[in-house]
Write a structure and sequence with these properties.
Radius of gyration: 22 Å
Shape: globular
Number of strands: 17
Distance between the termini: 48 Å
Number of helices: 10
Strand order of the largest sheet: 10-11-7-12-6-13-14-17
Strand content: 15-25%
Order of helices and strands: HEEEEHEEHEHEEEEHEHEHEEEHEHH
Length: 338
């Protein structure tokens, strides 16, 4: 069994990475602060990014520390500072006070691979992709959980045909289950016509409860269906749990692609890699003559994937009957697997 890592090991690993903006290594550039290593080898540190720094630099720093022998876990607190993380000037007669750091994301190994399903704008089929991906993974024998983090428009209950209230046992909320997928959504808890008029702190509290107070058990994949955009839900999620990647859903037209690009850049900014792009509503195949028609401008997903340097994971056609199946609680990969 290897000895736990120490602070010097971490400093050396981060000192081997060069900041493009400074032309110096991360340590001498002052981009890393507050390194701590506990007796078990768990490392915590603060990483300072500005708008001029590539978001991939944070991922590179995390991987470097994870690769150190004796490191058992990494918590990286990413600070987005326009002034490079300079401390605020002290008032006359008072010492300078550092701002409180945001929460650090926790490793939750029982959840398996934690993947966020995101989109830049609404109406592109993000929840449909989330539901069918979760059902397909479960059909292949994986243990899957799906958390509906779309606080303002929770659609997962309808797509899985479950609307009953979850039970609480031993202080833990019991997730509902359908098609082999464990589910949790605000739609199970509030009334269907109840408007979600909540500010950031409430949203963070709900997402925290869905992650920590639900009896998810041991999973292979944990998917999070996020609301569109780059708001409180996205930032709360990245601060609470360590994400292993994000999948971006878009449609082919440039308006959707532009919004999706901003969403992808948000994940890069906080050190989370984009797994790939899913292009929904890519084309339409007539069920009668089988002619292939491009309803929207073609190639948006491919262009977005190329710009981000990530794979285009799939192109999903407009398909007659898919919406009806979703309203019945039957993901199409379950009801029509072929």
């Amino acid at each position: 069994m290897s000895e736990p890592a120490n602070k010097t090991d971490v400093e050396q690993a981060l000192g081997g990475i060069t900041s493009p903006r400074h032309g110096r290594d991360l340590m001498s550039a002052g981009m890393v602060r507050d390194i701590t290593v506990d007796t078990a080898g768990a490392v915590t540190f603060t990483f300072v990014l500005t708008r001029e720094d590539p978001g991939a630099l944070a991922r590179q720093a995390r991987k470097a520390v994870e690769g150190i022998a004796g490191v058992t876990g990494v918590k990286m607190n990413v600070v987005d500072s326009a002034d490079g993380g300079a401390q605020p000037a002290a008032r006359p007669g008072r010492p300078a006070a550092a701002p409180p750091p945001p929460p650090t994301a926790d490793e939750m190994p029982a959840l398996g691979k934690v993947l966020a399903i995101s989109s830049g704008k609404g109406g592109v089929g993000k929840s449909t992709v989330s539901a069918n991906l979760a059902a397909a993974l479960a059909r292949d024998g994986h243990r899957v959980g799906l958390m509906d983090a779309d606080i303002y428009g929770p659609n997962i209950p309808r797509m899985f045909g479950r609307n009953d209230k979850p039970e609480v046992q031993g202080g833990k909320i019991q997730p509902l289950e359908a098609h082999g997928v464990k589910l949790m959504s605000l739609g199970f808890i509030v009334e269907r016509d109840a408007p979600a008029i909540w500010r950031g702190p409430i949203i963070m509290k709900i997402i925290t409860q869905f992650l920590r107070d639900v009896a998810w058990g041991e999973l292979d994949y944990f998917l999070v269906d996020l609301p569109p955009g780059t708001g409180d839900a996205q930032l709360s999620l990245t601060q609470i749990v360590r994400l292993h990647g994000a999948i971006i859903v878009t449609t082919p037209q440039e308006m959707a692609v532009g919004d999706s690009l901003r969403g992808a850049k948000m994940f890069e900014r906080v050190g989370i890699g984009v797994v790939g792009i899913v292009e929904n509503m890519s084309y339409f195949v007539c069920p009668h003559c089988h002619e292939h028609s491009e309803v929207f401008l073609a190639g948006g997903g491919s262009r977005l994937a190329a710009e981000l340097g990530v794979p285009l994971l799939g192109q999903i056609p407009l398909q007659a009957g898919m919406a009806e199946l979703a309203d019945k609680g039957e993901p199409i990969v379950v009801s029509q697997p072929d």
